[in-house]
Amino acid sequence: MDDLLLRSLVFIFILTLAIKFLLNRRKQERKLPPSPPAIPIIGHLHLLKQPLHRTFHSLSQKYGAIVSLRLGSRLAVVVSSPSLVEECFTKNDIVFANRPFFPSARHLSYNQTTLGAAPYGDHWRNLRRIASSEIFSPTRLNMFVDVRKDEVKSLLRRLYHVCNKGFVKVKLRPMFMDLSFNIVMRMVAGKRYYGLEQVEEARRFREILTECFQYTEVSDPADIFPILKAFGFTGVEKKCMSIGHRLDVFLQELVDEHRNKKDGNAMINRLLDLQQSHPQYYTDEIIKGLMQVLLLAGTETTATTLEWAMSNMLNHPDVLKKDKEELDTQVGQHRLIDESDYPNLQYLQRLTCESLRLYPTAPYLVPHLSSDECTIGGYYVPEDTMLFVNAWSIHRDPKLWDDPTKLKPERFGAHQKVESSKFLPFGLGRRACPGDGLAKKVMTLTLGALIQCFCWERVNGDEIDMTEKAKISMSKVEQLELMCKPQPNLEILLS
């Protein structure tokens, strides 16, 4: 009897090995997307020159709209066509609803429990629901309309203080950062920093947020080659631990400050109410993680997008002139632009879209990760494959857009519907950015107010350098400097 049992176990073991061998062989025989020649161990890492979106574009020109890359121990796929994007985020949307996990970055995402980093599932869906209902729903956006108006007016006053004697050279990016930071901070925590007594505190907070944003774009070599940890290669992880701790201290202070407040529309108050009824789920960590993502995603990106839009306008005086004429006609010279004017400011809204097309803040979106094997464009994509969507390349594809490198706001006309898979500044699918409505409102109001209230010229008449630097986000190499002078009636508009 023992001999029979032993032979049965051996047979089952051999059969299991044979099945695994056949399955693995079948997977290997499946056709992966085209790929450049690789180097042992490092794969294609040597090909990844900055900016990455241009490298990805060059590879797609040579190998096709879908390319597979081996990044150390990780497999990645880059797609660069609307049909493949559609396939990724319709048929395979749930498969690609995860984000890649890098061990070093867990210190910046409360161990991968934040809205941006959490795996797809019940927890992520709940965070997304809270963000959508408490920040980004039409009702909540309308509730905070005065916040946006107030902060744009503060920006105008700040500029007027700098250049009220005539044309003065100004750097706009720091002002855009303050604007976006204050708007999101007031929505999330009901607190305004810049312009009040907390300026130094705000400066340190924003520096930490900026560092955190930068290190979400840095991949630790030990994440790609885990064996390096055995040799002490943990520099990036230690830096992430330090940034994460300092950011946590600031966020905890905000939570504690609001814990005893019983009123206010800020999101943190609503979360603390939920904490009282469900303390085991709505921990301080969950609350801080949601605040962190909204502050990170809503400040740097908005400021960067505004800087690109102003650069585009000043390099195209005819566009600036059309925007000014539209504002003069639809709003006039006796009051400031208001969000209720948007339906009548079609050209300004088209400029916003066109600037996002040419210079998307996330040129290859935020990477996705496959939770299961699937096919894209007829090619086999294994489980745990990173997906990069080269939105920058799609936005400049001459097969999809007429004169794709030219700034032409008219292409977004009222009767010219643009397919979502062709225009991807906020992503697509389940993990698309929920803040697109807020971003467009802030952009339109800010750009309209700056055009309405000031005269703008390029420094020495020289064309603005549009060279970009990019990892996950794409900003200008050279910060934008412009000559600024207030319009004669600005004091009336600001009164």
Automatic annotation (TrEMBL):
Domain of life per record: Eukaryota
Binding-site list for heme: 433
GO MF assignments: heme binding; iron ion binding; monooxygenase activity; oxidoreductase activity, acting on paired donors, with incorporation or reduction of molecular oxygen
Gene Ontology CC: membrane
Pfam families: p450 (PF00067)
Names of required cofactors: heme
Keyword list, A-Z: Heme, Iron, Membrane, Metal-binding, Monooxygenase, Oxidoreductase, Transmembrane, Transmembrane helix
PROSITE patterns according to UniProt: CYTOCHROME_P450
Family named by the database record: Belongs to the cytochrome P450 family.
Name of the protein described by the UniProt record: Cytochrome P450
Organism: Turnera subulata
